[in-house]
């Protein structure tokens, strides 16, 4: 029988699959529904409407009453989101609702699931690595398989979502009996989180956190359309494959990233930023190449940006684990996820700026801003750089 953490890992994987299965479907909906790129971008972004409130609210609920009730309630929400998206093939307005529900399910899963994974895992940083791998693998596989289904199988606007529904049913069966050892709070307390009072978090994590998904989303949202003429026959599958390459690279690099984190959080953060900068440098090459060379450049950029995403994701989760009290862990992780999801705005900002200054300048500016974000952590006064145990609340 699978271990408890592995069963929980599958549930996080499955809901992450559902969060990203929509990404490669743009050309499908353009053909079947006449959907423009602006409408699709709005549908893709409506996910945030459900995600952010759910992260903040259900992270707190998970710390109050336990992790298991939140995860069990998440599964039917995720299933309903795919049912609604499936019905959206006939009524496009339902696509917005389906994306909002997918965000709600993700928000319920990510904070509670990451905190629960830590409690089911022995060893510093092991839970963070397992959660990051589950999330990244789900994101990557959801985009990959939805892209392949949309490219080559019949009725993709239905079949892609049926696959996810089956995965969530399996996830419910697996996670049903996973033990929850979290001890809920016995006092009401305030909404103030200890992690937000930590200079190490405010200066050492917050400034660069949006670049976790900033790297990933530029890779699979901004880059594939730049070579659409070169891959026109398989453009849907190519978009899904680039998303999968980016996110699965982020998952596969996690064991190495955790070893880096053992040398200190800042080592992992600087390594992730450095690789992300190299990824943006490679992306800049798309402005000066075309044809097969441009495709090769995008593949290289996807690997580098995926590696940067993966290292930064686990570095941030480890930083939160080391800073947050045990009875605030799910909420603190939820705050970190809210910050990294701000990175979804980066492709939109690039789309506005690129017609005026060019993609090369945009990618260069992104790399510079990443460096500025990590350098801000060095401005924390030495008096604020407390011993790690002093930063951790005694209740942990």
Low-confidence stretches: 381-396
Count of helices?
Answer: 18
Tell me the structural class. mainly alpha
Q: Please give the radius of gyration in angstroms.
A: 20 Å
Residue-averaged pLDDT = 87
What CATH architecture label applies?
Answer: Up-down Bundle
What is the name of the CATH class?
Mainly Alpha
- The 3D shape can be described as globular
Strand content: under 5%
> Count the strands?
0
Question: Describe it for me?
Answer:
The protein contains 18 helices and no strands. With 396 residues, it is mainly α. It has a single domain, classed as Up-down Bundle (Growth Hormone, Chain: A). α4 runs parallel beside α6 and α4 runs antiparallel to α15. The longest helix has 33 residues. The protein starts with a helix and ends in a 5-residue tail after the last helix.
Concise account of the structure shown:
The chain has 396 residues and is mainly alpha-helical.
Task: Quickly list its features.
mainly alpha; Growth Hormone, Chain: A; 18 helices
Topology, element by element:
Elements: H1 4-20, H2 26-33, H3 37-45, H4 47-65, H5 67-87, H6 93-120, H7 126-152, H8 156-175, H9 199-204, H10 211-222, H11 235-252, H12 254-261, H13 265-284, H14 291-323, H15 329-341, H16 345-357, H17 359-376, H18 388-391
């Amino acid at each position: 029988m699978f271990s408890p953490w592995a069963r929980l890992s599958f549930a996080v994987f499955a809901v992450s699959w559902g969060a990203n299965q929509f990404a490669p479907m743009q050309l499908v909906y353009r053909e079947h529904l006449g959907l423009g790129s602006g409408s699709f971008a709005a549908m893709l972004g409506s996910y945030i409407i459900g995600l952010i409130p759910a992260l903040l609210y259900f992270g707190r609920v998970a710390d109050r009453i336990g992790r298991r009730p939140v995860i069990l309630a998440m599964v039917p929400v995720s299933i309903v989101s795919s049912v609604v998206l499936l019905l959206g093939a006939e009524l496009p307005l339902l696509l917005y609702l389906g994306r909002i529900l997918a965000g709600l399910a993700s928000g319920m899963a990510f904070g509670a699931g990451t905190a629960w994974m830590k409690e089911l895992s022995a060893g510093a940083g092991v839970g963070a690595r397992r959660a990051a791998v589950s999330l990244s693998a789900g994101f990557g596989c959801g985009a990959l398989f939805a892209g392949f289904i949309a490219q080559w199988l019949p009725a993709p606007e239905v079949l892609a979502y049926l696959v996810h529904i089956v995965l969530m049913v399996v996830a419910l069966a697996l996670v049903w009996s996973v033990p929850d050892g979290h001890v809920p709070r016995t006092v009401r307390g305030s909404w103030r989180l200890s992690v937000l009072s930590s200079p190490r978090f405010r200066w050492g994590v917050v400034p660069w956190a949006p670049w976790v998904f900033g790297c990933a989303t530029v890779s699979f949202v901004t880059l594939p359309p730049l070579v659409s003429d070169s891959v026109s026959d398989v453009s849907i599958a190519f978009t899904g494959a680039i998303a999968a390459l980016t996110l699965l690279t982020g998952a596969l690099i996690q064991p190495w990233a955790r070893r880096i984190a053992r040398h200190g959080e800042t080592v992992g953060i600087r390594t992730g930023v450095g690789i992300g900068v190299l990824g943006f440098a490679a992306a800049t090459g798309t402005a000066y190449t075309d044809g097969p060379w441009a495709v090769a450049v995008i593949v290289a950029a996807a690997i580098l940006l995926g590696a940067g995403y993966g290292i930064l994701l686990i570095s941030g989760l480890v930083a939160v684990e080391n800073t947050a009290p045990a009875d605030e862990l799910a909420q603190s992780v939820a705050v970190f996820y809210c910050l990294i999801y701000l990175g979804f705005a980066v492709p939109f900002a690039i789309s506005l700026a690129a017609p005026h200054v060019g993609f090369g300048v945009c990618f260069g500016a992104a790399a510079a801003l990443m460096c500025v974000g990590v350098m801000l952590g060095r401005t924390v006064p030495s008096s604020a750089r407390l011993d790690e145990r002093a930063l951790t609340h005694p209740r942990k």
